[in-house]
Amino acid sequence: MTTTSTSRPSTPVVEPILRLRGIGKEFFGNSVLRGIDLDVRPGEVHALVGENGAGKSTLMKIIAGVHRPDAGTMTLDDAPATFTSPLAAQVVGVSTVFQEFNLLPERTVAENVYLGREPRRFGLVDAARMDRDTSELLTELGLVGISPWMRVGSLSVAEQQIVEIVKAVSYDARIISMDEPTAALADQEVELLYELVRRLKERGVAILYVSHRLKEIFDLCDTITVLKDGNQVITTATADITPDQLVRTMVGREFSGYFPEKDPTTVPGEVRLALQGVGNTQVDDVTLEVRSGEIVALAGLQGSGRTEIAHGIFGIAPFSRGRVLIDGTEHTLTSARQAVRAGLALVTEDRKAEGLALGQSILANARLVLDSVTPRTSGSRARRIPGILSSLDLVARSAETEVQYLSGGNQQKVVLAKWLVTDPDVIVLDEPTRGIDVGAKRAVYDLMRELTADGVAVLLISSELPEVVAMADRILVMRDGRLAGELPAGSDEETVMSLATGAGEESAEHVAVDLSVLAEHPEALAALPGASDAAHRPGGQPADRPVQQEER
Amino acid sequence: MSTSAATARAERPRLLERITASSSWTVYALLIVVFVGILVMNPSFGEPMSLMAFVKKAAPLIILAIGQYFVIVSGEFDLSVGSLVGAQVVIAARLMDGEDSMTWPVMGIMLLFGLAVGLVNGLVTTLLKVPSFITTLGMMLVLYGAIRLWTGGAPTGALTEGFRQWGRGGLFGSPGEFQVPYALLIVVVLGVLAALLMRRPYGRTLMATGNNDVAAAFSGAPVWWVRTRAFLLSGLMATVAAVLIGGYAGVTAQVGQGLEFVAITAVVLGGVVLGGGRGSVVAAMAGALTLEALFTLFNQLSLPSTIRPAVQGVIIIAAVAYAAVPRRPRRRATAEPPSSAEPSSPVDPPSRPKEPAAT
Q1: What pLDDT digit, counting tens, does each position of B262-284 carry?
Q2: Quick check: pTM over 0.80?
Q3: B300-307 contacts, C-beta under 8 A, 24 or more apart
Q4: Of the candidates A332, A357, A438, B133, which lies 20 to 30 Å from A53 by C-alpha distance?
Q5: 3-class secondary structure, B35
Q6: Check whether domain B47-324 has CATH 1.10.3470, yes or no
Q7: Chain A 373-432, CB below 8 Å of chain B: which residues?
Q8: Contact, A97 vs A168, CB < 8 A?
Q9: Which of A316, A372, A378 lies nearest to residue B216, judging by beta carbons?
Q10: Model ipTM value
Q11: Domains of chain A (ranges plus CATH)?
């Protein structure tokens, strides 16, 4: 890892307030951070960037006092610092603004800022002084639109974010970390935040800025640290790197060889799944076919109706129009149970909410479909589970381990196992590699190749364009609940993206894309100010915010 | 081989770990403590006759705990079982009216009535989406009121001898001497069946439904029917409990009152988590036995019986609070450096014998 010292005239070298040396962290045996060195200097905006699961959030939580590091040291003002809680960190001047606000919507701005440490007078809360102090803070920070007596619930998301920051400042914070502060903001609101960040910088506050949006990183930040798979790849002055280089550093993988090659002997056979003009309240007029031995990708933006297609096929939110044919026979599926009986399998998008009973063992989860749908034969069919689990390279202490203690990748393997044991004819994979590590991703890709070699029809729903382009035999692109078009294998990501966004149309302004898309097309950045992606978290951690949908 | 050595090292603390890791070990420990307490206070309690008397007294609660366990582990409640027991005893007395030939037909009616109540509870909860707390609270009041309306306030009729023998009598030997109570046999049979059922696909699906009903539904489980069957089992168990209670204690206007809370306390004491998805049926039965033993101990300490509700309240709150404490994952007896080649071994098929420990 290289540590390039900053040479810009605008940021003279100052002694760091906070130093991290060799910070490491593991969760349940999975190392998520290794050897991180970080210097946080007053008056400097330090960007923390990386792909999902790179360890940014974990590092922030260590600095915030939520997690304790397993290795390495932190020093604050040259004295060793160990924060036992977020409050302990806050008291010594290290505040964190998380994506989820800790605000009481029914209370005023002032009450929120001084929550838990209200100024008192004769034993009662001195509301006048609280309002006055808050008002002073707001003026100091140049915030004119917000008054201390406003109800927080009546403020916009951006203003609420600002209240969080004001709260941090009121603790005399010298370091403020912000976790994707613009993720939930509309473009015009972002400017408000920019201004605040600049003012904080002038006051000599050190800012750690986690973001996915390259534009604001280059607009705002002085120094950039790139994390990848828990390692620090580089720390550099912003002036010394181009957006193009930064994206390459972040993604930093060779695409060739990352995805398993298609076996040339696997050729599409009979049509296994056919949708003919299906629709419901979410999607309309969708016609598609998936053949045995074929991987058909369903690409599109968040909310374009891809998951709704999966739920429609699987009978969870059935189609009200059109026909669904499985192996040539028309089916009207109105429950997952019927879908399983018809030979379908659905690996859902949200592993924890829809895929797993987290408090049950690996084995119990892997048996769940058999137990639920074919109780008579589940005992004998379940004997194959250990073999399937080990063929997926599941890493766990024993089959009795509760799945909540597994990493995201291993949890996903349990979900896959529970469907594989049913020998499905058609398998629908909804974001199968979301939030899992590279090794597990590779296992999923290998599995898809094996399944098609065995004649299974695979419908792959994915936001990861490299995955779509590399794995699919055909790419169907959805937009606004309809099919926008079909592309052959090997189409480039730009074509998929322009079809998904309806290129040139105004809606492209609010497109949600995954960073990996930008790896190939950093020039697309300028056109995508709202670039953001769904929240992926390092393995084994709860996702701490719902998927952001940027379309309004 | 380094991996086998690591496995062996991890295997060693297994027994103690296994006992303390299951959330229900406390109930077994408590059961022993309470029994020792009773024996110290009253050594004659250990004699076969008084032990069997205790079993007869405890049997209905244990059976109710089994029924309540199914409902709780699926993520619901059944507050109607106390009223159902009361209703069943009153119905039995009224319909039999001391007529021996009526014993079996009436028991058949009771069975149907118990299942009907369970079915209504289940369908209202799962299909009409009324929270089970409200559904069964309503059922409790409906049964309570309907029975009083029907009997005009005081139960009438009489239970037959053939009916009462199930709660009072036993096998081998004559009354007054040592007998193996029918109640004990019924508890053992039902307990074994319940434990087996929880290992069957239905039991696993029930548990998964309590843990995450969305995931269960996405896996093809008919969640509504899985839960409704739990209510049916609860109604069935309440019916069996009613037969035993009627036999043991006879007909009174108060019979069954408050039993739903005693049963819930027993289940919770057994480490079964309210909200579903965790706990074993055997532990729930042990919870019922412990609770009954605790009441016996209170008797021997000459505490007034009015203290019971207070104790139950404390147990429910304490057990739920205890369950809410985050449990640490049970794993990794030894900390390995993260850089080691294999952090842990892939899952071994359970059938494969473990390699012997490297010595």
Answers
A1: 999 999 988 888 888 888 999 99
A2: no
A3: B300/B38, B300/B41, B300/B42, B301/B41
A4: A357
A5: helix
A6: yes
A7: 373, 375, 378-379, 383, 386-387, 389-390, 393-399, 401-402, 404-405, 418
A8: yes
A9: A372
A10: 0.77
A11: 1-93+173-252+510-552 (3.40.50.300), 105-165 (no CATH), 271-503 (3.40.50.300)
